[in-house]
Amino acid sequence: MGDILSRLGQLFVQSTPTVVFVFLLLVILDRFLFRRLTGVLREREAGTLGALARAREQAAAAEAKAREYEAAFQAARQEVYRLREAERQEALSERESTLKKVGEQTESWLKESQAALAAEVEAVKRELEKACQTLAVEIADAILGNGRPAGREARFPD
Q1: pLDDT digit string, tens, across residues 35-47
Q2: What global pTM score does this model have?
Q3: CB neighbours of 156 closer than 8 A, spacing ≥ 6?
Q4: How far apart are CA 143 and CA 23, in angstroms?
Q5: Confidence (pLDDT) at 149
Q6: 64: exposed, middle or buried (Cβ count in 10 Å: 0-12, 13-18, 19+)
Q7: Rounded Cα–Cα distance for residues 14 and 6 (Å)
Q8: Which residues are CB-neighbours of 126 under 8 A, at least 6 positions away?
Q9: d(CA 68, CA 74)
Q10: pLDDT for 44-79, tens place per residue?
Q11: DSSP secondary structure string, 61-115?
Q12: Longest alpha-carbon distance in the chain
């Protein structure tokens, strides 16, 4: 067992410069390479995370704007529909009043025409009665041979 311990001691003594060299190399690499490399990686990660956060914020803002525009567009569309409906109702009302006015005018003209026609019928009836009376007198004179002079009319009671 002593032999093993002495060999271990020798190995330890022989490996000490290698261990010191590796430790020294680790310190030098850490100071000059790994710290700078980890610093660059941290900056890159911070930049990437910052860019991702900004991209998410911008995407959320764009989505909010899109919803806002969609709501405004929907409101404008409904306003157009409301205006169209109001114009349609106004046109229907105007059409209805025009039809009513034309109907009233037509009825008025019809009544006036009927009254004028009735007056004409009465006038023609009176003329026909006079003509019938005159003709009856002439026929009677012609048949009976009354000595009345021609052109003299007989009067019948009205």
Answers
A1: 888 888 999 988 8
A2: 0.42
A3: 133
A4: 169
A5: 53
A6: exposed
A7: 12
A8: none
A9: 10
A10: 988 888 888 999 999 999 999 999 999 999 999 999
A11: HHHHHHHHHHHHHHHHHHHHHHHHHHHHHHHHHHHHHHHHHHHHHHHHHHHHHHH
A12: 197
